[in-house]
């Protein structure tokens, strides 16, 4: 069985919100991560259409003018939480479904994103999250060149994440155990990234213990024997899939 995943930066929707929602639904994905989502009237219409189409949705509480992350899943969401107590939830938001922890990512610009990268790298290294999906506002200065000569702050961060067990040639990363059957088939279309990958297996009951909305999701058992693949992406928008299955 495969899990089809899509992520799209909607730039808060605006007048294009209805068309963007139609586009999201057109991916027929099992899991959607929408970045630069805003919890305002436009965002509420998007949520309503997704839920009418059979998705469960979750996003952090945020100011209506603040960009954040929306996660929509066809599998019922068991719980949701901030990624860490130490950082605001509107940049990193976690949900768990069927024993799988997903982190929706919308990192801030410039130096402000560096503490978020440290948190992502730390938890990925300790196998405390399965999927990291969204907009990392980071790139490779050799691959993602701005015609005006602007350069990324923190370009070494993807490399540090790669050093925890992933490999790269662009911006979409899939890391899973060697025992996983099948392969992922990522596709990049416009500013959206989609992929199909083996559906993660359920975790032990102890790993799925209940948690309140405002507490960190628990540490995960460390998995071993990781294999990797990576495909290219476009500037600014990226999707990382970490530990898709055991």
Automatic annotation (TrEMBL):
<feature type="compositionally biased region" description="Low complexity">
    <location>
        <begin position="183"/>
        <end position="212"/>
    </location>
</feature>
<dbReference type="InterPro" id="IPR005135">
    <property type="entry name" value="Endo/exonuclease/phosphatase"/>
</dbReference>
<feature type="domain" description="Endonuclease/exonuclease/phosphatase">
    <location>
        <begin position="6"/>
        <end position="148"/>
    </location>
</feature>
<dbReference type="InterPro" id="IPR036691">
    <property type="entry name" value="Endo/exonu/phosph_ase_sf"/>
</dbReference>
<feature type="region of interest" description="Disordered">
    <location>
        <begin position="183"/>
        <end position="223"/>
    </location>
</feature>
<keyword id="KW-0540">Nuclease</keyword>
<dbReference type="GO" id="GO:0004527">
    <property type="term" value="F:exonuclease activity"/>
</dbReference>
<dbReference type="Pfam" id="PF03372">
    <property type="entry name" value="Exo_endo_phos"/>
</dbReference>
<keyword id="KW-0378">Hydrolase</keyword>
<protein>
    <submittedName>
        <fullName>Exonuclease III</fullName>
    </submittedName>
</protein>
<keyword id="KW-0269">Exonuclease</keyword>
């Amino acid at each position: 069985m495969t899990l089809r995943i899509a992520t799209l930066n909607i730039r808060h929707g605006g007048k294009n919100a209805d068309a963007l929602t139609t586009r999201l639904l057109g991916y027929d994905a099992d899991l959607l991560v929408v970045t630069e989502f805003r919890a305002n009237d436009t965002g509420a219409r998007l949520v309503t259409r997704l839920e009418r189409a059979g998705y469960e949705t979750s996003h952090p509480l945020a100011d209506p003018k603040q960009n954040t992350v929306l996660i929509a899943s066809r599998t019922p969401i068991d719980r949701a939480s901030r990624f860490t107590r130490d950082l605001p939830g509107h940049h990193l938001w976690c949900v768990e479904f069927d024993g799988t922890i997903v982190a929706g990512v919308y990192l801030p610009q410039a130096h402000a994103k560096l503490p978020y990268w440290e948190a992502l790298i730390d938890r990925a290294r300790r196998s405390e999250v399965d999927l990291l999906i969204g907009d990392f506002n980071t790139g490779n200065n050799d691959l993602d060149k701005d015609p005006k000569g602007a350069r990324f702050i923190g370009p070494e961060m993807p490399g540090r994440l790669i050093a925890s067990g992933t490999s790269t040639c662009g911006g979409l990363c899939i890391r899973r155990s060697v025992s996983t059957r099948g392969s992922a088939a990522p596709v990049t279309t416009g500013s959206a990234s989609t992929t199909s990958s083996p559906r993660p297996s359920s975790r032990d009951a102890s790993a799925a213990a209940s948690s309140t909305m405002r507490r960190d999701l628990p540490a995960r058992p460390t998995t071993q024997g990781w294999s990797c693949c990576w495909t290219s992406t476009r500037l600014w928008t990226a999707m990382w899939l970490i530990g898709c299955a055991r």
